[in-house]
Amino acid sequence: MDRLIINGGKQLKGTISVSGSKNATLPIAVAAAILADSSSVIHNVPNLNDIDSLCAVLEVLGATTKLENSTLYIEPGDRSAYEAPYDLVRKMRASIYVLGPLVARLGIAKVSFPGGCAIGPRPVDLHLKGLQQLGAEVEIDSGYIIARANRLVGAEMYLRGPHGSSVGATANVMMAATLADGTTTIRGAACEPEVADLANFLNAMGADIGGVGTSTLTIHGVKQLHGTEYTVIPDRIEAGTFMVAGAVTKGEVFVKGAPAEHLGATSEKLIEAGVQLDWADDGVRVRTPRDFQAVHIATDTYPGFPTDMQAQMMGLLSITPGISTITEGIYLDRFMHASELNRMGADIRVEGNHAVVRGKLRLSGAPVMASDLRAGAVLVLAGMAAAGETVVSRIYHIDRGYENIEQKLAGIGADIIRVSD
Ligand code: UD1
């Protein structure tokens, strides 16, 4: 298993580039493989383990996929396979995205129940509810979700759950509704940019989706969808992670390709914490002319502060004088990184879904373990800010979502290497 070895205390300086969005690419690839009746060419696709895992699912379902130089070529298959097996789905929760498109296209889908993960329970009730409202019959049998429908029929539905709208459920149901008879209205739809990007891709395939980017989506069903050529949006979470990297190392970093319009809440909290952000047409310059200041953060659905940036901000707040607080509103147990940061000298107390962070002047390097993707990212950030050596293990979590992380960070002055056992 690979590890990252970081010698902290180096100021980052230079330009670091943002890759395409992982979370936008995943459903887009599913739509291209299952809903379209001809090939698609998708640009700005990050070369990540999560994309490979999803492509393995799409290949089992008959599609042909090839990722070359950030372009993903997808050719739909012969449309007989409808089962996403446990061995593949357990590696890749987003495999649940095939459920709606399969039932819309083939009338049947059998997908392993994805289960929970390190950031807590992750139910799929809203995905199932939405598909049932489109007329699918859904049963759970031996760990599999089986959905059937002769023909999906457009419906009005409200898709918010106890923690707000669901990115996954909105995407799944929206994809299914594109081929349903009649009109579907999804109220309480997720407004995340990745959902909007999927909707734009579906429209480029010939779908008819209105209200893109808002909480009410109107989908007029069409008879068929065709392949298309498309460029995925930049990854706002990778961009936000690099912005924090510039800040925690007191460096001067230009994050090239950072999407200003998708980073509102993250930028606001960084500015409140004392980070200087100068936006240009093609990215943002991050500087730290002042001492950091404590801030209070509550994660929320878009355009609120993203849960996927919570861990990284906790890293920054660990070295920010004063008392900061973080309330996690989306995944209530998503604080696994706090105890690892405490091993590096941070002072973070977690109670329920609240964390109180008492800032220290400096962290010290230590052996630490990534428990999930963003929890892994903050350990890299903390390692770069800390005095001495940090060894991050279980970095397969980080590789799921960050393309060439050590090369990108080394390119702006980080002392970071990957070692294999
Ligand atoms: C997506 C992102 C993930 C991000 C999350 C929230 C992908 C591949 N992953 O995950 O990085 O952290 O959005 O922005 O895009 N919920 C239910 N019932 C459901 C579905 C979700 O109660 O059927 C709850 C979840 O437990 C959570 C909240 O709704 O509390 C939001 O989850 P959701 O938006 O669905 O997250 P994902 O799509 O799984």
Overview of this protein structure:
The chain is an alpha/beta fold and 421 residues long. Helix content is 31%, strand content 26%. It is built from 14 helices and 24 strands. Strands 22-23-1-24 form a 4-stranded mixed beta sheet. Strand 18, helix 10 (310-318) and strand 19 form a beta-alpha-beta unit. Helix 1 packs parallel to helix 7 (193-204), helix 5 (125-133) packs parallel to helix 6 (167-177) and helix 8 packs parallel to helix 12. It is globular, with a radius of gyration of 21 Å. The structure holds uridine-diphosphate-N-acetylglucosamine (UD1). Uridine-diphosphate-N-acetylglucosamine (UD1) is lined by residues 23, 26, 94, 122-127, 161-163, 166-169, 190, 194, 307-308, 330-331. Uridine-diphosphate-N-acetylglucosamine is lined by residues 23, 26, 94, 122-127, 161-163, 166-169, 190, 194, 307-308, 330-331.
Helix-strand blueprint:
Blueprint (H helix, E strand, L loop, with lengths): L1 E6 L5 E5 L4 H14 L4 E4 L5 H12 L3 E5 L2 E5 L7 E2 L1 H4 L9 H8 L1 E5 L12 H9 L3 E5 L2 E5 L7 E3 L8 H11 L5 E5 L5 H12 L3 E3 L5 E5 L8 E3 L4 H13 L3 E5 L7 H9 L3 E5 L2 E5 L8 E3 L11 H9 L4 E5 L8 H8 L3 E5 L2 E5 L8 E3 L3 H13 L3 E5 L2 H4 L5 H6 L4 E6 L1
Parallel strand pairs: 2-15, 3-14, 6-7, 10-11, 18-19, 22-23
Antiparallel strand pairs: 1-23, 1-24, 3-5, 4-5, 7-9, 8-9, 11-13, 12-13, 15-17, 16-17, 19-21, 20-21
This protein binds uridine-diphosphate-N-acetylglucosamine (UD1).
The site of uridine-diphosphate-N-acetylglucosamine has 22 residues, from α1, α5 and α6.
